[in-house]
Amino acid sequence: MNELLTRAQGGEAEAQNQLGIHYSEGQGLPQNYQEAKYWFKKAADQGHAGAQVNLGTLYSLGQGAPFSDPMALFWFQKAADQRNALAFAKLGMMYERGRGVSQNLVEAHMWYNLSAAYGEKRAAESRNTLAKHMTAEQIAEAEARAKKWTPARR
User: Fold this and answer.
1) How many domains does the chain have?
2) Chain centroid, CA 101 distance in Å
3) pTM (2 decimals)?
4) Tens of pLDDT along 76-114?
5) Do residue 87 and residue 150 come from a single domain?
6) Helix residue ranges per DSSP H, the chain
7) CA 145 → CA 50, 104, 106, 122, 141, distances in Å?
8) Residue 90 lies in domain
């Protein structure tokens, strides 16, 4: 743990993210969401997609950060722009539930599609469950949007 802390303090984004995970999950360190947020933010600000998802998750749950769907969306979108499979799934969940955005099943299906295409197995289950509440036209539109999706230009 000392080596990880040294690397994180030295500015290594992956080490900062890993340290955040240790604090978030209470692995080898006392669980402390404020510390987790601190380290996730350091890595997220350097463009670490995993840390961006982790930070967004803290905001979406109100753990160590004020509950904020807009902040969760902000960080999930930054990670999605890097083609992060879990970020795609988190965006799908936000659109499915109407958290911070208007509920939009087509948009949710699109994000779940992208997540599954990038290897997130649980996203396929979420997409398939969601599809049971959609028309064939909505599903076709979501699939077309997923095929056309490109990251936002920053």
Assistant:
1) 2
2) 15
3) 0.95
4) 999 999 999 999 999 999 999 999 999 999 999 999 999
5) yes
6) 2-9, 13-25, 33-45, 49-61, 69-80, 85-97, 105-117, 121-131, 136-148
7) 24, 13, 9, 20, 6
8) 83-154
